[in-house]
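Narrative of activities, Objective 1.

The group set out to show that a structural description can be obtained from nothing but a protein's sequence at a throughput compatible with the screening campaign. Below is one input-output pair from the validation batch, recorded exactly as produced.
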Amino acid sequence: MKSKLGLVLEGGAMRGMFTAGVTDVLMENGISFDGIIGVSAGAAFGCNIKSGQIGRVIRYNKKYCRCKDFVSISSLIKTGDLYGADFGYRRIPDELDPFDREAFRNDPAEFYVVCTDMNTGRPVYHKCETGSDEDIQWMRASASMPLASRPVVINGAELSDGGTADSVPLRYFESIGYSKNVVILTQPEGFVKKQTKLYPAVKLSLINYPKLADALKRRPQMYNSELRYIKKREMSGDAFVIRPPKPLGINHVEHDPSELERVYQTGRKTAVSVLGDLKSFIGAVRASDERSD
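Output recorded for this entry:
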């Protein structure tokens, strides 16, 4: 049985510029995957891998990071979304920096996103197949941070940021047949997530979504457990992990294009530094498949 090669993308708001730098280098070197799964920024940015649009993520983020309709407190006050839903998920992909839906649809790689069901606190996994308007809404839901975004309602379910329930879904991808995976993290080795001191206020603000509040309370434990599992899979040779060399030090909301470029270039440099080992990992997976034919 052939091994399915997966790519797992963590979120992390503008730490996602690191991921964009890594994935642009992978695309430039012709590295492809059987499937991709993204969470939050990993979903919103990772779709450009399947559409083959090198440079699109850093380009539109730098161009519009100071635009109030794209991301601002005024957008949050006016619309309920810190990242403007209409600007970010309609005007940019349809008009300002078009998302290549045809290329997305025709590329053979499967593309999954992770959301959190706000009423159950559990992860929801969805395969985006065509790049349709509904697929774009699934990507939006995956990246919709609690309290900074309105619920995204799809098929009657109220959805929000997938990182709440499953921050780095390596276990899930393995469960559906992706036995070998490249994992791109946005925190350096040794990072340990701690509970925010603001949790009591967060819980109060989510009084109508108690299961979501419970999931946020459990998130540090869940995230740290996932990191331990990823390390275990890395040591066994079943996962190839790409991490930033040190904390990226970028704000969740960043209005400075030079900061976005700095983190993007960190991703590019990191990818270049591991490219030989990555090609060896992928080559071994493909060679094993050939031997099993």
